[in-house]
Amino acid sequence: xxxxxxxxxxxxxxxxxxxxxxxxxxxxxxxxxxxxxxxxxxxxxxxxxxxxxxxxxxxxxxxxxxxxxxxxxxxxxxxxxxxxxxxxxxxxxxxxxxxxxxxxxxxxxxxxxxxxxxxxxxxxxxxxxxxxxxxxxxxxxxxxxxxxxxxxxxxxxxxxxxxxxxxxxxxxxxxxxxxxxxxxxxxxxxxxxxxxxxxxxxxxxxxxxxxxxxxxxxxxxxxxxxxxxxxxxxxxxxxxxxxxxxxxxxxxxxxxxxxxxxxxxxxxxxxxxxxxxxxxxxxxxxxxxxxxxxxxxxxxxxxxxxxxxxxxxxxxxxxxxxxxxxxxxxxxxxxxxxxxxxxxxxxxxxxxxxxxxxxxxxxxxxxxxxxxxxxxxxxxxxxxxxxxxxxxxxxxxxxxxxxxxxxxxxxxxxxxxxxxxxxxxxxxxxxxxxxxxxxxxxxxxxxxxxxxx
Length: 453
Known about the structure:
CATH topology of the largest domain: TIM Barrel
CATH architecture of the largest domain: Alpha-Beta Barrel
Structural class: alpha/beta
CATH class of the largest domain: Alpha Beta
Number of helices: 14
Largest sheet: 9 strands, mixed
């Protein structure tokens, strides 16, 4: 099927030279971008469908590099509104341990829909707890993503240290190292797509240095090397974590990652708030990736990640909304705006421009997930992952002096159009394939039941 999107008022390509076009068009054949230009398109064969981009700003779809989708069930929980990370975790684990396949399926769809609405076309997820050994919940999450149509890069997460072993989680949500490794292989072999334009890829993701054994960290890195998949974990999120790592391992967090073989181009880490200059040099030397999660870091009082410094290095930097119970929303464009503003609090007004933040949100995220040959920019030969903003909405009024940065600087609320892999999922601001009201009702019922336990 050939789709022509024409009369696009403004087109931010996100390509290597960051071209910004006016009066543009894009041709999509099935799921691939086959032509881009300005003015009136000249087609060798007519389009099966023509979509107007008049008064629209088109961008490459955003790539979310860190999330915990099940946490959309635990937003705005008053008991942890003012808690720091470790206390926040200790309280919520006692409710998280009751999630099941229905809860994971529904909560994943809620989080994905909210991200689609705010510009995401590809998302990762870090699902690291499997209550009472229920390994099928990751299958439910993948099914939820496929049913909606988002490009998905979930991680088979893990925890193997419970309270009795000196960790934080209850016994009911941890597994043995052996079971984790067996299940990791199973999920890779069942779901990981090694082809072009993959809709599902798998990474391996022990939860954090304080929730798994050292041996599991090493064996996970070795398994990822054998299977040629990426690895992911939380790192250097809080000062408490640094103190824990020094006390238990005798290393600061980044040095510990080096000790267990995790400083590698196949790794990416969430947060990296508390990083020294030496840490940043090590991460850069190994071309490690980072998911910057400003809302979560602000919400939990964790600190300000030194992105203004890291962006000058060889690190791969993307943006993540993080779990919805440490953010309370899944607004990705909101995260891009916060990323822009938060760096300026510490490093000055020119620390991070809105265009730099948008590049991190698209091509930056694609590089983090090692998918930049297929997604992250609007170029011929890449997957048709496209978003458009209606510039005639209230928040943009008077803000079109630079339309390309308006979604960030003017605090955009939602896209008008979202296409993933050539399939239109949002048009005229409405989902094309999901009953949002029914989804919200299911989610609220499940959330209330879980918090009542």
